[in-house]
Design brief:
115 residues, mainly alpha
């Protein structure tokens, strides 16, 4: 019955159930066979984590998790290219900016459509 109910659960709910049941000492004997398929299904490996032996980690530069995260952020920010605005949004934005410039008495410069 529990297995059938769990099939209908969302991913986050199943993970919570798995973690909740794992902490119930009396239920450990039946948790593993029942939830093993879910564990395989829900497994997620963070690519920032280093699962290599320490010797390999040291040979690769001994980068901390924070250093790896900073490198990832820089890479994402350098490579990201926002999708172009659709014509209606571009026109509305242009109009709003023009109105602000006029209200503030600043010479208006059109927003570039190509970067």
């Amino acid at each position: 019955k529990l297995g059938a109910t769990m099939q209908k659960q969302t991913s986050r709910q199943r993970t919570f159930i798995l973690l909740s049941l794992a902490h119930t000492a009396s239920g450990l004997c039946w948790i593993v066979p029942l939830l093993l398929p879910l564990i395989r299904e829900e497994h997620f490996q963070v690519d920032l984590a280093d699962r290599n032996p320490r010797s390999v980690w040291e040979r690769l530069g001994s980068k901390t998790l924070l250093e790896k995260a900073r490198e990832r952020v820089k890479k994402i920010l350098n490579e990201y290219c926002p999708p172009p605005l659709d014509k209606d949004t571009q026109r509305d934005l242009e109009k709003a900016v023009r109105e602000i410039y006029e209200r503030e008495g600043v010479p208006y410069t059109p927003i570039p459509t190509e970067w």
